Automatic annotation (TrEMBL):
The keyword Endoplasmic reticulum does not apply. PANTHER family: LYSR SUBSTRATE-BINDING, TRANSCRIPTIONAL DUAL REGULATOR HCAR-RELATED. This is LysR family transcriptional regulator. Residues 291-315 are annotated as: Disordered. Residues 300-309 have a biased composition (Low complexity). Residues 1-58 form the HTH lysR-type domain. Belongs to the LysR transcriptional regulatory family. One of its GO terms (molecular function) is DNA binding. Keywords: DNA-binding, Transcription, Transcription regulation. It comes from Kitasatospora indigofera. It comes from the Bacteria. The keyword Transcription regulation applies.
C-alpha cells in the first residue's frame, strides 16, 4: 500500500469522477485508475462504485476513507513540523468570508503572503452558516462571519464590529413616522432581507420566533445595496446593519428595532483549539494583530471596530 494510492482514492471520492481527480492531481487519468485498482486488489475489496454517472465509495471504501485521510494528514504533519522547527513556513491556509464587508481582507492576505511566500492561500465566499460548519470540520482555518451576541460553540472569535440591526423604509412609508418599534410591529408586514444562512437573517428569525411569529419575507437578496434600493422604492422594510442604513439617510428612514433589541457582530473566527497547521495558526496570529474596525454586519459600515487583541492567544 502506497501513500499515492491513498491520495488518489481520497481525491476520486471527493471529486466523484476519475477525470476531475486526475486533473486535480496533475497526473494522467489511466494512472489514477490503475493505482486504485492495485489498492483494491491488495485489500481484496472494491473501494469505489463505478457503475453510475458519478463515482461513489462502496461501503468498504467509505470505511477506508477516514483512515486514508488520517494517513495523508499525518504525512503532511511531519513535513510541516520539520518546516516549523527549521523556520520555513509552508503548507496551505483556507480562508472564508461573508459576501459584503469593509474588512481589509486583501491587505491581510497580501501581507501574509509577503511574509510567507511558500504558503498557498485560498479564499472562498459563502453564508455564515456554511462558513461556521467549514471551520468546525477543518475545511477552513479562519473566516469572517456574522454572529449573534454569543460566541459560536467550539470557535474562538475576534470581534470586528458590533452594531444594531435596523428596519429601514422609504421616507413615504407608513412606518417612517417612527424612530423605534417593537419587533412585533413587523408582524405580517412585507420585509426585505438577506437569505437564510446569513447572520443578519438568523438574528431576524430568532427575534421573530421569540415574539411568536414568522417574518413575512417579501424580497430576498444577497446584496445589501439591493435591499436598500427596494426599501427606498416603498416595497417594504429592509432589515439592514445600522451603520449601512444610516449612511443612506437620503434614501432611507432608519428605525431601531426594540423589545428585543436586534444586534449582530462581524467576527474573525477560528477553531477554539487553533487551526491544525502552523500556516493557519500564523495567519490567525497576524489577523489578530492587524484587523481592526471598519467592518459592517453582512454589509459595509462604520469605523468603530471592536477588536480584542488582548484575548487569549491562539495555540
Amino acid at each position: 500500500m502506497e501513500l499515492r494510492q491513498l491520495e488518489y482514492l481520497v481525491t476520486v471520492a471527493e471529486e466523484r469522477n476519475f477525470t476531475r481527480a486526475a486533473e486535480k492531481l496533475h497526473v494522467a487519468q489511466p494512472g489514477v485508475s490503475a493505482q486504485i485498482r492495485r489498492l483494491e486488489r491488495e485489500l481484496g475489496q472494491q473501494l469505489l462504485d463505478r457503475s453510475g454517472r458519478s463515482v461513489r465509495p462502496t461501503e468498504v471504501g467509505a470505511a477506508v476513507l477516514p483512515y486514508a485521510r488520517a494517513a495523508l494528514a499525518a504525512v503532511r504533519g511531519v513535513r510541516l513540523a520539520v518546516d516549523e522547527l527549521t523556520g520555513l513556513l509552508r503548507g496551505h491556509v483556507s480562508v472564508g468570508t461573508v459576501t459584503s464587508h469593509n474588512v481589509d481582507l486583501p491587505g491581510l492576505l497580501a501581507d501574509f503572503h509577503d511574509e510567507h511566500p511558500a504558503v498557498e492561500i485560498t479564499l472562498s465566499e459563502a453564508t455564515s452558516d456554511r462558513l461556521l460548519d467549514d471551520l468546525r470540520t477543518g475545511r477552513l482555518d479562519a473566516a469572517i462571519v456574522s454572529v449573534g451576541s454569543g460566541d459560536p460553540e467550539g470557535l474562538g472569535v475576534l470581534v470586528l464590529e458590533d452594531q444594531p440591526i435596523v428596519a429601514a423604509v422609504g421616507h413615504d412609508h407608513e412606518l417612517a413616522v417612527h424612530r423605534v418599534v417593537a419587533i412585533d410591529t413587523l408582524r405580517g408586514r412585507p420585509l426585505i432581507s438577506l437569505p437564510r444562512g446569513t447572520g443578519l437573517r438568523a438574528r431576524l428569525d430568532e427575534a421573530c420566533a421569540a415574539a411568536g411569529f414568522t417574518p413575512r419575507i417579501a424580497f430576498e437578496a444577497s446584496d445589501p445595496g439591493l435591499l436598500a434600493q427596494l426599501a427606498a422604492r416603498g416595497l417594504g422594510a429592509a432589515i439592514l446593519p445600522g451603520a449601512f442604513a444610516a449612511a443612506r439617510a437620503e434614501q432611507l428612514h432608519v428605525i431601531t428595532v426594540d423589545r428585543p433589541a436586534l444586534r449582530g457582530r462581524l467576527v474573525l473566527a477560528w477553531r477554539a483549539g487553533g487551526p491544525s497547521g502552523p500556516a493557519g495558526r500564523a495567519l490567525v496570529r497576524r489577523a489578530r494583530r492587524t484587523l481592526g474596525g471598519g467592518a459592517g454586519l453582512d454589509g459595509d459600515a462604520g469605523p468603530d471596530g471592536n477588536a480584542d487583541p488582548d484575548g487569549p492567544p491562539v495555540p
